[in-house]
Amino acid sequence: MTNLLREAITRAAAWQGVELNASQKRLAGVILDEIGSLPRVNLGLPMPQDSRLLRIAQALSANPDDGRRLEEWAAWAGMSSRTLTRRFRAETGFSFNEWRQRIRLLRALELLAAGKPVTAIALDLGYDNVSAFIALFRRMFGTTPGRYKI
To answer: pTM, whole model, 2 decimals?
Structure first.
């Protein structure tokens, strides 16, 4: 979110009444223009079709903080880690670790929307430290989690 958009929304949030005056209508137009120029972020995450991989994906969706290593997930699904790696990328377009990071970030968005503190989210989702979580969030969404929730 740009500073201009943030300030325009802050000003618009204080408006009273139902009818907009001429300057409010212009500001509303600026808000719409700014929103239209924001980069698009695809929040969807493809699920694998292979039943073994789907089982892993569903387990991670339910518990994104699960810290099992790739080798442990492969053993749990009854396949080699190499097969898991190859099939996961073929079916989702992401490496296993990229997919896991994205499912954690999607959960982070839900928790931010619910008002949970950034530090608690990072620790709940299995990040070793808050800085690592913030850096990944910024790389993915272009802003920090603290600014995102404003």
So the answer is: 0.69
